[in-house]
Amino acid sequence: MIRLEGGEFLMGSEDRWAYPGDGEGPVRPARVGAFWIDTCAVSNADFGRFVEDAGYQTEAERFGWSFVFAGLLPDDFPPTRGVAQAEWWRQVEGANWRHPEGPRSGVADRADHPVVHITWNDANAFCDWTDKRLPTEAEWEYAARGGLEGKPFPWGDELEPGGTHRMNVWQGTFPSENTLADGFYGTCPVDSFEPNGYGLHNPTGNVWEWCAGSFSPELQAQRPARGGSYLCHESYCRRYRVSARNALTPDSSTGNVGFRCARSVN
Predict the structure, then answer these.
(1) Residue 48: how many other CB atoms lie within 10 Å
(2) 172 to 72, 74, 185, 233: CA distances (angstroms)
(3) Architecture in CATH of 2-264
(4) Which SS3 state, helix, strand or coil, does residue 43 take?
(5) In the chain, where does DSSP find H-type helix?
(6) CA 100 to CA 117: how far, in whole Å?
(7) Residue 32: φ, ψ to 5°
(8) Cis bond upstream, residue 100 (ω within 30)
(9) What is the pTM of this model?
(10) How far apart are the C-alpha atoms of 106 and 167, rounded to whole Å?
(11) Among 188, 206, 231, 186, which residue's Cα sits nearest to residue 88?
(12) Are 95 and 116 in contact (CB under 8 A)?
């Protein structure tokens, strides 16, 4: 973890990338106190230690299924039910954090990748075990900005400065073609790519990260997630920015949602 002293910053965005319905704007001053935050998302290895010690079973394991991106399933995978208007999401029996693409898959070779198929409730259970908590949205955005003000990305204005990839997002034509220009198709190790100015790896791209609280007064039952994922592409999801938000139910479980932890300064 890294300790951030906090302070006031400009939160939110009103630029052309913002989705008005997400509540990114207006840009407003926000203040956070000093806090600690993980430099990386919680990995499969981290989560495995928790499960072994606490005997915890995730909600996806209890449900018996979770949502998997169709492009990650093998060609001979049995037909599965898709999500209306998002057919690239497939309901896969036996998909969970141990088996991200279903029973035939595993995480033995992905110990340093972010744990996925984690609900908001699962994330809070892990936080309780570690004596940590989920960051607030203000804390998350303050940390993700890395000391920069008014920039869409943790490193500045350009998605790929100088042609260099700085995060793991979809490259090519979504959802049919991924050129792998950034080196990855699904998730990547939690410490991939250069950290931001505060030392955080992958606050944008790779996996969505759960935050504390409710998404909005109108959607109090939904929880906020930040940062976008390896599936984000400007053609349909421009939420791979530090100000972008997403609303999910607390029992949502998919192959592109994980989390990182925070801790208050006593």
Answers:
(1) 15
(2) 16, 20, 11, 8
(3) Alpha-Beta Complex (3.90)
(4) strand
(5) 44-54, 59-63, 120-130, 137-145
(6) 7
(7) -125, 145
(8) no
(9) 0.97
(10) 24
(11) 231
(12) no
So what's the pLDDT on residue 84?
83
Taking alpha carbons only, the member of 265, 264, 263, 258 closest to residue 46 is 258
The token pair at 247 is: 């609303």
Q: Which position has the token pair 């421009």?
A: 238
Q: Return the residue matching tokens 């109090």.
A: 220
Cα distance between residue 168 and residue 174, in whole Å: 14
CA pair distance 23, 11, nearest whole angstrom: 11
Task: Say which residue the tokens 């938000």 belong to.
Answer: 245
Q: Which residues of the chain have pLDDT under 70?
A: none
Taking each continuous run of H as one helix and of E as one strand, the counts in the chain are 4, 14
Cis peptide, bond prior to residue 103, ω within 30 of zero: no
- pLDDT, residue 255, reads 98
**Rounded distance between C-alpha atoms, residue 99 and residue 4, angstroms:** 35
- The amino acid at residue 118 is I
Letter string b/e over residues 82-112, b meaning 16 or more CB atoms within 10 A of that residue's CB = eeeeeebbbebebbbbbbbbbeebebeebeb
Beta carbons of 168 and 206 less than 8 angstroms apart: yes
Q: Where are the domains of the chain?
A: 2-264
Q: Are 7 and 33 in contact (CB under 8 A)?
A: no
The whole-number pLDDT of residue 218 equals 92
Q: For residue 81, which of 59, 97, 65, 96 has the smallest C-alpha distance?
A: 65
